[in-house]
Amino acid sequence: MSEIRKKSHIEIERNPIERFLMYVKDFLKINSRKVIYSAVFIFALFSLSLTAYLLLTKSSENDMIRLEVIIDNYSKSVRESNVGAASQNTLSGSASMSEANNKTIQELNNLISDTKFGFVHKISHYWLGNILFEEKRYNEAFNAFDTFIKKSSDGVFVPIAINKAAICLEEDGKIENAITLLSEYTAGSKNKIVMDQMYYNLGRLYLLNNNQIKARDAFKYVVEEYPQSAYAARSRERLFLISAVK
Q1: For the chain, what are the domain ranges?
Q2: Fold adopted by 153-246
Q3: How far is 53 from 115, CA to CA, in rounded Å?
């Protein structure tokens, strides 16, 4: 009788995949309510994330279009001002250009205020700095460039912004600050964009600061590393003048 009982107890061998599926089935059966709640939560979270992404993408596109319109209008004003200067109506052209600059400055400030973050927000600071620079509002231009530099990675526009920010400091009489800004960047960056101009400006600033040794080193670097650059020719002239002073 015991042998019959033993034979009636049959154990079915399952492969690992089947065992896993059976485990999942049993788990869902036991925790069905929790599983439903979790699925609803995950679906809702996914839907919210997708909606936020689509809204952000649409907002970014609108911000980019807005920036393009601002820059296009500014470029048009520059062309019209150049035409006015060519026709010798200098005063009229200068006044209209200054008016266009102020209008663009206001529009860029509004765009910066409206965006808060993202590419358009960052690059707007760069454009703002350039236009303020043209208006010789050097303190404001430096602040715009400085904000752009802090918000951006070391790309195409960053070295240009640093170079112009140093000129802003120079124009405001902050020679030491300008030297620090350029020397820290040239020492720590591998970016070669406008580096010849940076070293040349660094040499000029050292001369203004009565440091002929470091000025000579900066000019020599330009001559040796960028022999075909226009700043190499200027650096040779500076080196000749330094030698002549001796």
Answers
A1: 153-246
A2: 1.25.40
A3: 16
